[in-house]
């Protein structure tokens, strides 16, 4: 099951509120979700909180392999920049490993041919 961390719309017409949720990538935007990680209120005024995001739950699901959307990454960068840096480091490490593997397989093909 491919997991996504994304925003789920809720609220009234012209007064949307969003929840950060972990959901199956095949489920619709307002459909079933596995866990709620926090919320975002774009209409927050004054001392009201604009958004709340559980860093512990987020790191747990990222370690499990859930893929964050771009909009979720923007909020994660505001609340927990260390988590975003960790995620980027993992991505670059995976990319380096893939690149090395491609190089090895190419040299094997050249040696065999």
Description:
Belongs to the bacterial ribosomal protein bS16 family. This is Small ribosomal subunit protein bS16. Strand 1 and strand 2 form a beta hairpin. This protein has helices at 55-64, 70-79, 81-112, and strands at 3-12, 15-24, 35-40, 51-53, 67-68. It has one domain (3-112): 2-Layer Sandwich (S16 Ribosomal Protein, Chain: A). It has a five-stranded mixed beta sheet with strand order 4-3-2-1-5. The longest helix has 32 residues, at 81-112. Helix 2 packs across helix 3 (81-112). By secondary structure, the chain is of the alpha+beta class.
Summarize the structure.
The chain has helices spanning 55-64, 70-79, 81-112, and strands at 3-12, 15-24, 35-40, 51-53, 67-68. The protein is α+β, with helices and mostly antiparallel strands.
Task: Considering the chains and any ligands shown, give keywords for the structure.
alpha+beta; five-stranded mixed β-sheet; 3 helices; structural constituent of ribosome; 113 residues; single chain; S16 Ribosomal Protein, Chain: A
Tally of helical runs: 3
Helix content: 40-55%
* CATH class value: Alpha Beta
Give the amount of beta strand, in percent.
25-35%
Q: Looking at this structure, what is the CATH superfamily? A: Ribosomal protein S16
Termini Cα gap: 40 Å
Structural class: alpha+beta
Order of helices and strands: EEEEHEHH
Low-pLDDT regions: none
Protein name: Small ribosomal subunit protein bS16
InterPro entries: Ribosomal_bS16, Ribosomal_bS16_dom_sf
Family: Belongs to the bacterial ribosomal protein bS16 family.
Keywords: Coiled coil, Ribonucleoprotein, Ribosomal protein
């Amino acid at each position: 099951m491919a997991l996504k961390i994304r925003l789920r719309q809720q609220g009234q017409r012209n007064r949307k509120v969003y929840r950060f949720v972990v959901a199956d990538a095949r489920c619709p935007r307002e459909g079933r979700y596995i866990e709620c990680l926090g919320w975002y209120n774009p209409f927050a005024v004054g001392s009201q909180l604009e958004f709340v995001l559980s860093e512990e739950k987020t790191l747990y699901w990222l370690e499990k392999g859930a893929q964050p959307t771009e909009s979720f990454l923007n909020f994660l960068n505001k609340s927990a920049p260390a988590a975003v840096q960790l995620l980027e480091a993992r991505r670059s490490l995976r990319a380096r490993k893939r690149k090395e593997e491609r190089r090895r397989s190419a040299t094997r093909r050249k040696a065999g041919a």
